[in-house]
Amino acid sequence: MNRVPPMAFTDVTNSDLSADLGNRYEGPDGKRYRLVQADSDISSAAKAVLVTALSSAVPTWVVDTTTTANDHLAVGVVPSDIVTISDTSGQIDEGSYFFVQDAGHAVCVGDDAIADGADVGTAVTAGEIDDASVDISGAIGVALEAIASTGDINVLLKYL
């Protein structure tokens, strides 16, 4: 995995990066990232857990917030320091290319009542994580600790 990423891991672009869609890249501190494309506008994207649709059991790498559909796969978490294009609201626009983190320590939106050490997965609430016993896609990582001031969760993502 010695590829050079086409942009910074915190950038969002409307440039056509379809040739790189789905590629994984090694980032700093053992974190890994995958290039994806937004299926629709993703509001308040930072720290959201995203899923991709499956086409004949193959990921499309076109992503959206979590869903209860069975033909989706969790792919990663939007970096908390993502820099969006069009505005300061934190929205990623439909069709934009960006990275999701799929391995290593991440901060995720979720229920701060999740116990340290609990397996976590995608929640029914769009873009959030929850205890894996109520998830829809299998465990995506392990809760390290809740961040009381924000309600977010520190998570060690397994290699998605």
Could you give the topology of this structure?
Elements: E1 12-13, E2 24-26, E3 32-38, E4 49-55, E5 58-65, E6 72-77, E7 97-108, E8 119-122, E9 129-131, E10 141-147, E11 152-157
Parallel strand pairs: 3-5
Antiparallel strand pairs: 1-7, 2-3, 3-7, 4-5, 4-6, 7-11, 8-9, 8-10, 10-11
Brief synopsis:
The protein has 160 residues and is mostly beta strands. It has one domain (12-157). The chain is built from no helices and eleven strands.
List its salient traits.
160 residues; 11-stranded mixed sheet; single chain
Mean model confidence by pLDDT: 84
Supply the helix-strand structural class: mainly beta
Through-space gap between termini: 15 Å
Largest sheet: 11 strands, mixed
As a percent range, the share of helical residues equals under 10%
Domain count: 1
Give the number of helices.
0
Task: Give unreliable regions as ranges.
Answer: none
- The beta-strand count equals 11
Task: Using the CA coordinates, give the radius of gyration.
Answer: 14 Å
